[in-house]
Amino acid sequence: MQQLLYVSVARTRLNPQAVMQLVSSARRRNGLHGITGTLVSSRYHFFQLLEGEGADIETVFGAIRQDPRHRAVLQLGRRHTLTRLLPDEHMGYRWADRDDRNAHLGAAVTNMVRAIGDDDLRVALSRFARIEQLA
Fold it and tell me: Tell me, what's the pLDDT at 7?
């Protein structure tokens, strides 16, 4: 099993309603592929953790890289794991209500991670991104 963490810049300003439509279709697609994870979005960025088998992660992440709603898709980390952080969430979702259009990606990620209410998940994602950046 693998975990993949990425951040991207939205081509246009996001709003919660539009992102919820994206999340609904992603939940169906992820369920078909055995993918779990969570998405945090702000008005201009996406930050997402995907968990699943390597080939399934590659299929879903490939589709994300080709999605015209994203630009500057940056993989922050990819690692093998024995357990999932989010075994029951085909697509968790959190909205980080920030106008971060001019924020560099590091600041955008920090702001979006702060929007995660679950302390354990917030710490795990912060460490995952930090460890991968140091590697």
Answer: 86
Residue 116 CA to residue 102 CA, distance in Å, equals 21
- Helical (H) or strand (E) element with 71: strand 70-80
Specify the pTM.
0.77
Domains and CATH numbers, the chain: 2-134 (3.30.70.100)
Amino acid at 50: L
Alpha carbon distance 54, 51 (integer Å): 9
Q: Measured between alpha carbons, how far is 50 from 33 in angstroms, rounded to an integer?
A: 11
Which residues, including other chains, have CB under 8 Å from residue 61's CB and lie 6 or more apart?
A: 4, 6, 50, 75
DSSP string, 93-118: EEE-----TTS-HHHHHHHHHHT---
Q: Which tens digits make up the pLDDT trace of 10-66?
A: 888 888 888 888 889 889 988 888 999 988 888 888 888 999 999 999 999 999 999
